[in-house]
Design a protein that fits this description.
The chain is α/β, with parallel strands linked by helices and 320 residues long. The chain contains 13 helices and 13 strands. Strand 4, helix 4 and strand 5 form a beta-alpha-beta unit. Helix 1 crosses helix 7 and helix 4 runs parallel beside helix 5. The protein starts with a strand and ends in a 9-residue tail after the last helix. The structure holds NADP nicotinamide-adenine-dinucleotide phosphate (NAP). NADP nicotinamide-adenine-dinucleotide phosphate binds next to helix 1, helix 2 and strand 7.
């Protein structure tokens, strides 16, 4: 099939594009061509690259038309963040594509009720990003179920892979947290360290897109969580990473208001966003309907990413 991937050179695209090419598809990647994939792969030689700035093209009302002109059978939209943006594309592609896949986020969920959270739980998003993504999800599923637009929504967790810094056991992105654990130094966590994070390897997200295309009839009109088999508590994550570095975990705990004073504003904002959501999502639906089988646990995914950081000297862990 002829597959257009909008925003296909990032975290997910790095793994998705080679999978699609190897699956025998004709692949077109749309981006501004400002960045390269995280990993080189021969498959990129077979990819048609189209340079297009979505924001600019949308402002001119041309984005959907430009995508339709590529004559795709399938469109994968990795970078849609507003309802208006989704609507502009759907209105132009209606009746023109066999499958439309949108990359959502587990942030469509607000605070959990029963965990693991299933896709059927009522949405209670907070924060502009999650609210917009939930609105896009509702719109696409309605268009699929009422109007026959062949949409599928995939909701990744915290995407991890070699090439960028993973979400750390303190719930933010400062890689120094991994260095502290590696050196056996004390790490202070907020509250009791029992709030949760839910990672997923970028290649498992890529797998889910491929599986959704392969299981078209089960995937259309549905949304799926795309996460590792199990979420981690911050405390458990810190303990396991310390053990991986060959160190005991020296953890201390502070109530949120005191803890936030120990980190930068940016770190506090990131941690708050993660612990206020404390995601713990079920993959049972994706396993059942599209045969999603993640290759990585959360820890395996993080450890691969941290190994990459160590090998490039981006974090200093001493002799392990
Ligand atoms: N990161 C996470 O942990 C996470 C978690 C859950 C869900 N998600 C979802 O994952 C999706 C993002 O996937 P990703 O992490 O693979 O993306 P990413 O790494 O941020 O890469 C973005 C891609 O889009 C292109 N791009 C960015 N702005 C563009 C524009 N204005 N016009 C055209 N192309 C543009 C980039 O290339 P150029 O810069 O060269 O244009 C690149 O190919 C989003 O829908 C997000 O909500 C992410």
């Amino acid at each position: 099939m002829r597959i257009v991937v909008i925003g296909g050179s990032g975290h997910v695209g790095t793994y998705l594009i080679p999978r699609l090419v190897e699956g025998g598809h004709e692949v077109i990647v749309v981006s501004r061509r400002q960045r390269a994939p995280y990993r080189a792969h021969r498959a990129w030689d077979a990819v048609q690259q189209v340079t297009l700035d979505r924001q600019d093209a949308e402002a001119r009302g041309e984005f959907g038309v430009r995508i339709r002109a590529l004559e795709p059978d399938v469109v994968i939209d990795m970078i849609c963040f507003t309802l208006a943006s989704a609507q502009q594309l759907v209105e132009t592609l209606r009746g023109q594509v066999q499958h439309f896949l949108h990359c959502g986020t587990i942030w469509v969920h607000g605070p959990s009720v029963e965990v693991p959270t299933t896709e059927t739980q009522p949405r209670r998003p907070f924060g502009e990003y999650g609210i917009q993504k939930a609105a896009i999800e509702a719109y696409l599923l309605r268009e699929a179920r009422q109007n026959g637009f062949p949409a599928t929504v995939l909701h990744p967790g915290h995407i991890v892979g070699p090439g960028w810094v993973p979400l750390n056991p303190a719930g933010h992105f400062n890689p120094a947290v991994f260095e502290r654990l590696a050196r056996g130094e004390t790490l202070v966590l907020p509250n009791l360290g029992l709030e949760t994070v839910h990672h997923v390897h970028a290649d498992d997200v890529a797998q889910a897109f491929v599986q959704a295309i392969a299981h078209w009839s089960a995937a259309v009109g549905e949304s799926f969580h795309v996460v590792s088999p199990a979420a981690l508590t911050l405390r458990g994550y810190a303990e396991q990473m310390a053990a991986w570095f060959g160190q005991p975990a020296r953890l201390e705990f502070l109530p949120w208001d005191a803890w936030r004073e120990t980190v930068s504003d940016e770190e506090a904002r990131a941690t708050w966003d993660h612990i206020a959501h404390s995601p713990n999502c079920s993959i049972a639906k994706a396993q059942r309907l599209i045969a999603y089988q993640p290759r990585y646990t959360s820890l395996q995914a993080v450890q691969e990413a941290v190994t990459w950081l160590i090998e490039r000297g981006e974090i200093q862990v001493g002799d392990r």
